[in-house]
Amino acid sequence: YSPLQENKRELRVAILAPVTYDDGLAILLRVEATSGSPMPEYEALSNVWSQRISSWKAIINGIQMAISANLDCALRHLRYPNKDRVLWVDQMCINQADDQERSSQVQLMGFIYSAAKKVIIWLG
């Protein structure tokens, strides 16, 4: 993960590449500033976190990373067949291993969801 600058209220968005359901997940994480410039257009995905994370993999910024089975299913169903889809997903867009980042991003979640073009709720 590239670091986020708190003073710029930055967030990461996930650009989900267009492929078929059976193809692997290819995702690019991009840092966006939310203050001082036009807001990036994105959709926020709220999904149920499952306990089983390690069995599902996605290629994120060229590196294989573990994601939950529920998120894997959601992303496969939500990706477009012929164009990128820009999403904010807490499980991927927040560095869960960085307590300081996670804390500051959780404080921004109300803003993140309200600024989204659309909020998608995925129950599985």
UniProtKB/TrEMBL annotation:
Superkingdom of the organism of origin: Eukaryota
Residue ranges of the Heterokaryon incompatibility domain? 42-124
Q: Which Pfam families match?
A: HET (PF06985)
InterPro entries the UniProt entry points to: HET (IPR010730), HetReg/Transcr_Mod (IPR052895)
**Protein name stated in the entry:** HET-domain-containing protein
The source organism is Bimuria novae-zelandiae CBS 107.79
